[in-house]
Amino acid sequence: MHEKERFVRSGGVFGLDDVVGDFDAAGVDAVRQIADMIRTQAREGVRSAMALAGSAAQSKFQLFPGDCDFFERVHITAPTREDAIEVLALTMIEAVARTFTNPHLQFAEMKLGLYPAPYSRAEEPVGQGSPISWGLEDLDVRMIRVVDATGETHRLRMHEVAMDPGFVKLDWVYADRERDRVVPVSKVIDATWESPDGSIIALDGVLDSFYQEVYLDPESQVDVERLVQHVSPDGLENYLDQIAGEIAKYSAEGHENYGKVAKRLYNITRILRRDADASYLRQLFDDPPARLYQVGGTMHALSEAIRAERLDRETIAGQLAALEGTIADCYVGADRDEIIALVRRLPDMDEDELLAAAERIAAASNTQVSDYFQQKIDESPGLKNVYELVLKEAPRKPGEHA
Length: 402
Description:
It is a single chain. Helix content is 46%, strand content 20%. By secondary structure, it is α+β, with helices and mostly antiparallel strands. It has two domains: 3-114 and 161-231, Beta Polymerase, domain 2, CATH 3.30.460; 232-402. The strands form four sheets. Strands 3, 4, 5, 8, 11, 12, 13 and 14 form an eight-stranded mixed beta sheet that branches. The chain has a two-stranded antiparallel ribbon with strand order 1-2. A two-stranded antiparallel sheet has the order 6-7. The longest helix is centred in the last third of the chain and has 29 residues, at 351-379.
């Protein structure tokens, strides 16, 4: 890590100076309450550090985040890599079990392991190398059933597929009764194994860089700084490549989401010290159209909560009212009244109609957000130059052409 990238403490949190500078510490106590619900519990041979990531870590200017993203570094000391992965899986299942009786949290899914071949699951195709999702019933039996191209059924057991852990994540829906809101809560896990000889190895093969996290527990700083020493020397370059690839992904035809592009451009302009461009982007997130950015995450959380009928009804009703107000104030399409009518009817819909309506509301809002940010990027010559350079230099998948 470069000298300018040392960790700093501020407001009871720590992280890289620029990252901490984007975080409003006034809300840290509420965030810690959620973190305490979902964190990995301390046990022999396991240490962890909880952080905020994404828009939740940029609360000084991203006033309308679509979800609450956590990032946890889980460090496991074990005799073998296989033992470490077994411990990782166990701690994740324990986190699900611990939140199962929490009246404010509803489990959504766990991701651990990669599909070893192309299959279909519940009649839906899944690609080789894509993350495996586990629901409650799957976790109970530690196994899922899939079907190959010949029609033969296979049992994929957790302890086998987890040996290639891939993208490791847990998702919930959180009912915040104090604020009458329902939000998606996620926790991405970056797990490392310390072998008996003291070597530290990322269980998924890559130790994530430290350019986005706001860590919530100052006492974990010594552990985080110890892991920093094992980040690849070209970690910043790899991080920028990752962000550039995501910008290209969200700019591709049929997948446009210029709200996500703008967020990632902000990270790049901040790292490259293009302060004028970063300031321009920060101001955009104060504008009314930016409020629509949260609609997609809200619709995901609401549809999960309404379907399960488990979380507090009054909180869901409060979130529906707030969503209706956001669309009434910020949505400008000719179909505005239709969208508002859909929001009002959501609690009375059957499951298929609910999912279709949620997708319709989220897609319409995302289109307006995307169009707004695309226009604003085009209107700034300096930012547009950065954007075009990023697209030109973005890593390409095999078979892609410029």
